[in-house]
Write a structure and sequence with these properties.
By secondary structure, the protein is mainly beta. The protein is 0% helix and 49% strand. The protein has no helices and eleven strands. Strands 2, 4, 5, 6, 9, 10 and 11 form a seven-stranded mixed β-sheet that branches. A four-stranded antiparallel β-sheet has the order 1-3-8-7, with no helix packed on it. The radius of gyration is 13 Å and the shape is globular.
């Protein structure tokens, strides 16, 4: 059974850090581009970051550039999103998704999401 499971969300104060994990089962993440998305209440889902499958190239939304870092550990079949200098506007449900083509353009599998709340 193909599955993506996010973890690592929680409540953090502004300026704090969290590391989200996206663990895959039923398939090997190596061959997929993995993207992170988020959706805040009342807002549309937005792309946050992506790491390609072929050359490991990374992409970031302007709103998180310099604060978030995406990485993959193929041995653990897991992709991470390190989030530093968190702001209240980063509050959202964060999802990871897998793109078989590897291009960070269209996604085949989605996780259920993990809540991130940035508040004092």
């Amino acid at each position: 059974q193909v599955q993506l499971v996010e973890s690592g969300g929680g409540l953090v104060q502004p300026g704090g850090s969290l590391r989200l994990s996206c663990a895959a089962s039923g398939f090997t993440l190596d061959y997929y581009a993995i993207g992170w998305f988020r959706q805040a209440p009342g807002k549309e889902r937005e792309g946050v970051s992506c790491i390609s499958s072929s050359d490991g190239r990374t992409y970031y939304a302007d709103s998180v550039k310099g604060r978030f870092t995406i990485s993959r550990d193929n041995a653990k079949n897991t992709v991470y999103l390190q989030m530093n200098s968190l702001k209240p506007e980063d509050t959202a449900v964060y999802y990871c998704a897998a793109d078989l083509v590897g291009s960070c353009l269209s996604y085949d599998y989605w996780g259920q999401g993990t809540q991130v709340t940035v508040s004092s």
